[in-house]
Design brief:
Layout lengths: L13 H7 L5 H21 L2 H16 L8 H19 L2 H16 L8 H19 L2 H17 L7 H19 L2 H17 L7 H19 L2 H16 L8 H19 L2 H17 L7 H19 L2 H16 L8 H19 L2 H16 L8 H19 L4 H20 L7 H19 L2 H17 L7 H19 L2 H15 L6 H18 L11 H13 L6 H12 L2 H11 L3 H10 L3 H9 L4 H6 L1 H17 L12 H27 L13 H4 L7 E8 L2 E7 L5 E5 L5 H21 L39 H21 L1 H5 L7 E7 L12 E2 L9 E2 L4 E5 L18 E5 L11 H15 L6 E5 L5 H8 L4 E5 L2 E2 L9 E4 L2 E4 H6 L7 E5 L17 H7 L4 E5 L8 H18 L8 H15 L6 H4 L2 E5 L1
Helix pairs in contact: 2-3, 3-4, 4-5, 4-6, 5-6, 6-7, 6-8, 7-8, 8-9, 8-10, 9-10, 10-11, 10-12, 11-12, 12-13, 12-14, 13-14, 14-15, 14-16, 15-16, 16-17, 17-18, 18-19, 18-20, 19-20, 20-21, 21-22, 22-23, 22-24, 23-24, 24-25, 25-27, 27-28, 31-32, 34-35, 37-41, 41-42
Length: about 1100
Amino acid sequence: MYSPTARLGAVDKPRELFEGEEKYSGDLIASLRLEGIRAWERFEAKGELADIDKAIDLKSQAVDHTLEGRLDRPAILNDLGITHLVRFERLGEMADIDKAIELTRQAADLTPDDHPNKPGYVSSVGTSHTRRFERLGKAADIVKAIELMRQAVDLASDDHPHKPGCLSDLGTSHLRRFEHLGEIADINKAVEYQSRAVDLTPDGHPDKLMLFTILGMSHHTRFECLGEMADMYKSIEFQCRAVDVTPDGHPHKAGRLGNLGCSYLRRFEHLGEMADINKAIEYQSRAVELTPNGHIRKPMCLSNLGESYYMRFERFGEIADMYKAIEYQRKAVDVTPDGHPEKPTYLNNLSGAHLGQFAQLGEIVDINKSIEYQRQAVDLTPYGHPKMPMFLCNLGTSQRTRLQRLGEMANSDEANIDEAIEYQRQAVDLIPDGHPEKPKYLHNLGTSHQTRFERLGEIADIDKTIKLLRQAVYLTPDGHPEKPGRLSALGGAHLVRGNYNFRIADIDEAINNFELCALSITGPPIVRFGAARCWIYGLQLKTLFSTSHAPSLLPQHTLINLIPELIWLGAPIQQRFQMIQDVVGSSVHEAVSAAIRAQELELAVEWMEQGRSIVWSQLRRLRSPLVDLQCAHPDLAQEFQDAQRRIEVSFLPHNVDNETESAADSLDRQAQAHRRNIQTREDLLTEIRGKEGFESFLRPEKFSVLSKACQGHIAVLLTVAGVHCDALVISPSSSIFHILFTNVSQDVIRDLRNQWETSCNTRLNNRGDKRDLSYCPNHCLVTPADGSLRTRFGNRGEGPAITNMDPMASMLSQLWEKIVHPLVNQIETLLYDSTDDRMARIIWCPSGPLSFLPLHAAGIYGPRNSEDRICLSDIAVSSYTPSLMALQSTPRQLGVPSILMVTQPDTPNQSHLPGTLREAEKIMKQAASNHLQSFVCHLSQGQATVSAVIEKLQHHGWIHLACHGTQKSLDPMESSFALHDGSLTLATLVQKSMAHAQFAFLSACQTATGATSLPDEAMHLASGMLAAGFSSVVGTIWSIEDSVAPEVAEEFYAALFEEGQNSDWKAKLEPAYALHSALQKLREESTGDRDLMRWVPFVHYGL
């Protein structure tokens, strides 16, 4: 935080003192002093080093020409001393601070106690001692400073013009001693004296703004120590006042903006309010812009801005913020001369930024740079300096981090961990008891001992770890944002020791600490979520020691409830995906399994819904109908709806649309707008939930709602965790029951999934297609590592004939025997208890690795007339859904369908797809047979541009896309359909709210496959169409043959149009039955196992 260099009283008003003195020394001295003051003022405004050098030269000449005993000599000496002090703050040369003390002391000694300038001169000596203490950390300097400041205060009456400045400087000296020793009495005295300074200064006085700023900084520091929010609010209040009334162009405007930004940053650290970090960056950016290059304050402004970008990166994970953090910290170091007292601080901050980037990207160069810069900070800092403990501790942390990332310990690594522990031990020894930072250093030292234990196995290290972490927890007050993390670390250490020595007492201690952390209302969600997982593990471990332990679902409940905070809507979508993959992982499946074991089946359904398709659910909530709210509070509903729409626009990344704007600046601008929109929505959501009857507005749905989502069909939710594989079946009457699949574990399901992928790839390899997309124009393979294109097959006649499909038939047979057949036996009554003549319909909602299995195709296949031949398709119609609530589509007006058909037989830079033309002909033939050809809009070849398709989608209820499809495994939202002039991406589709959307047929490859790294998110084009508003979608879970697609389309639309004509288009159509009918004909025509891939890839999603 910026600490003003200009002092009050005699320190920052040399011209005033000069003008008030009798000029006994003649025009030469007067001229020298006046020119020196002008040079001083130029330096204050622009920060040019030449100006401060010139000021010292001129004022030194004035001193040399002033005879001993002259009445103005003390003022000239004091003026020169303060100028040396300012240059010291710019360059850090010890000669300057020593000279400042010498000259200001001479001025004070030459001035009688009853002289009106005596308090100011004494205060100047004290200020100089304070600055030297800040540089060297010698306690004698701060003790002397406080003694002198107190003397200055006593010498000045309450109406003395220098009294407020002396009080403020005395408060600042107590503040500095507090920062060194951590005595609460010092920070309280700082606030007390600076408050008196403000009270003694009349409104409108030019010094009042500076006094407000300094008082605000002390309130800020006390807040960081005691955590009293009143201090933080006062800090911001006082500094806002100072900023608001400081005109642009004022030399202290930049400093006050920077201080205010720092206060917002600290409040963000404690409360996590997005508005605070945005304000911090806004004010600190203005401070950087207003501070000219070369100015004394420029490095501090740059470093503070870098810190704010880093904090925003830690919260929201936007890599652009990390790059900016390093950029500004690097600039701060580069513009700070060697020997400057703050250079070690800027090196420390740059080291921390590289450490954060290493944690994000894993580049070894970053951790090496972190250690390098931290060593420089330590080497440049005198032993005993107040900041030395922090630098030593951070150096130890960086070394430990490198060791943890590099893995196994070699001899050199053992030396590194010993060195890290030694640095952190010194940090603990240097910082006094009672200092607010003591718990942090104890925590870090304990963590390093644990790292050494995990490498070397010395029990003394883990014992030391627990002792140190326990001290850190004890010394951290309740409510402190870092207490949950320290509790979790202590729990982890007990767990490690419990696993090592099999002591139940350690397991109990671990469980207790994890519970306290997870249930805390403070601390980052990721820390509390991790603690909840460890809490669950600890309880499971305890069952090995005691079978009498009663299981509890409280930790699982806590974990599930933390998911919305962890996967926050305001975070970039890629960060949310990464968090789901890296942090949430299998936790939800394990929680659901625990609820099932406890016979809490409705709760299991609710948890499964909350933990899958998280990103789609967030988008769905943005589009939820607001009918009830509109009736009760129309203005609030409109405001909320407007906020929702703004977030939808910024929900996904946008391209840079300004050629003069860099990509980084564009991303930063978009991110800022998105965060503002999110903040507005959250504020409105809080307001709405405060209204009577809306307490549960947009909260996660209960089972009573979820059970009705399938609208009379059978829902089957499948989950696997460890050795348990379960189905939760929801009947048409909304009852629920559980099926346990015996001898089916997570490993078994993964094996089935591997067999499925292997058999599909074998099928493609037999056709001669290769993974290298440039090898052959007719390619359609599983996505390569870079997430590139998957397309439809070319003509079936191209390539060698299929010789063996046994792997796929074998896999489908196992799937039938292990999962589908046992389930069908259990729900036989439901399957045949239908109110009409149609087959029962199962809507599958699988999770984890089960999401990639072709459940609809499970069966025993063989020759057409084989008695053993049986499959699910003979028993029930199958559909899929990414979640139960995805089935809750907005009701559409029934009537004659309006169809948009898009075909791309010759997409530029793609393989030829002649089958799409035949597909279009067959669809038009069916439309004509049912007198519907006038309701079909056909875009083909050059007509089918991205903009044209998007525009037509707004006016048609049905869409049929026959083209190449792209599944991007590394960036799912960029999965797309290949049109004539570019790609229609999933990101674009879900941003469009289709007013007439009803049904989509995606006749392209792998439109319902999803990303293997996000099995529960259903990140594929079929789900995207559901999210865009289509209630029913036909897609493909693997590659399809170009020659087969027209046959499927013809039979599908024949069945669907017939159903519509029979009901005069007044009944709700169910495309799932039409697809079932079309595929049934293909199955009947198949000659055996080798024809399975003709129909298996086609699936139905939705209702």
